Amino acid sequence: MTSPSAPPAVQPKGPGFPEFVCLIACLMALNALAIDSMLPALPMIGDALGVVRENDRQWIVTAYLLGFGVTQVIYGPLADRFGRKPILMVGVTLYVLFSVLAALAPTFEMLLLARVGTGVGAAALRVLAVSIVRDRYEGRTMARVMSLSFLVFLGVPILAPSIGAAILTMGPWPWIFGVLALAGSAVMLWVAIRLPETLHVEDRLPIQPARILGAFRHALTERKSIGYTLAMTAITGALFGFINSSQQIFEHVFHAANLFPLVFAAIAGGIAAGTLVNAALVEKLGSRLIAHSALVAFTATAAVHATVSALGHETIWTFAILQGLTMFFFGFIAGNLGAMAMESMGHIAGTASSAQGFVSTTFGSLTGFFIGQHFAGTATPLLMGFVVCGLTALACAFWAERGRLFTARHAPGAATPT
Fold it and tell me: Are 110 and 252 in contact (CB under 8 A)?
């Protein structure tokens, strides 16, 4: 982090603030599109490729998330050495190629391998998006950029199941993966034409195992970095549990599979609304006050919802309203946790981003898969998973701040508190 007396960094030429936010959002949105657009198609894919056990369909989501999570550790050091743009281009290319292979997959096993490969490519998008933002902004401004990007990005989860359902009315399920390839190609062209290199030559770091291991060690042992990374892991696990279980809940609990895209969009809209409000407030109130308060509200709402379900009073309306409210509070959490985890990592932004992403996505996806595998005809296991994940995230934040929640604190060397 730069000191208050340091001169402002010279910003590289390229897109202005609105276009920059949209580009970062689209990089992140490719990830959401690759997850959510095929949710309505899971039964069709399972039937076409001979998947006998319904819960095994969840591997289509989890295989992608595991490829996405595990390989993030590779991209950070490469981006710190060779620059952001060339590594980003490699990642988008892999995303496109493996999306095509997924569309052509003749077996469930081949589809899962292609999904892992798509996730491997998308991992570069996640790492580089955060690193590029960190190259240009810091503190509350970085949190605002991430929140605005996250807002635009959330338009994709809102619409993705409907997009997937619309594609299925025009063609078979492989067409969904074809759309992913086309979307990836469009973003790749945008990056190639409009995005400059944001890492200055003098800031590039050689690939030295000792230095890389030291950077990973710092990112995964510095109290606030690892504390907020683990908090993000827990919250991400809840989100992935919802994504894994949602289609089955609508099909088997509410017997309303046709309403799934609409209600899913309404629930995802709760995240968008929360993120929009957060973007307007974060520079004034600070990341800590907002994120900690939202974690409490997230957990309390999930507990109320779990109680309603356990007592047998769950309906499609209670699910939509209470889950939408829970996700509204999620919108205040994700961008702020990521910004707080990165606030003291400016000198190793690429490596730190990849290390944090590896932990939060890999273990978050496994947590979400664990939650999803407990689906047995009711929404209660999912909702109890939300409660446990919320409590875990609160405990991690409490530890990261040494027991002092809700207040803005100066990070060492930070220009402004977050």
Answer: no
* CB contact at 8 A, 228 and 340: yes
pLDDT band at 64 (very low <50, low <70, confident <90, very high): very high
Say which residue the tokens 């800031």 belong to.
203
Structure confidence at residue 105 as a pLDDT band (50, 70, 90): very high
- DSSP states of 256-289 as a string? -GGGHHHHHHHHHHHHHHHHHHHHHHHHHH-HHH
What are the tens digits of pLDDT across the range 287-314? 889 999 999 999 999 999 999 999 999 9
CA dihedral 246, 390, 328, 115 (to 10 degrees): -40
In angstroms, the CA 16 to CA 94 distance is 28
Q: Quick check: 342 and 142 in contact, CB under 8 A?
A: yes
Query: pLDDT digits over 2-53, tens only?
Result: 444 444 444 446 677 788 888 888 888 898 899 989 899 999 999 999 998 9
Using alpha carbons, list the distances in angstroms from residue 145 to 148, 156, 244, 339. Answer: 5, 18, 29, 10
> In terms of Cα–Cα distance, which of 181, 29, 16 is closest to 95?
181
Give the C-alpha separation, 223 to 216, whole Å.
Answer: 13
Q: The tokens 């099909």 sit on which residue?
A: 251
Residue 220, CB half-sphere, CA atoms under 13 Å: how many?
16
Answer whether 36's CB lies under 8 Å from 84's CB. no
Torsion of CA 177, 182, 184, 188, to 10 degrees: 160
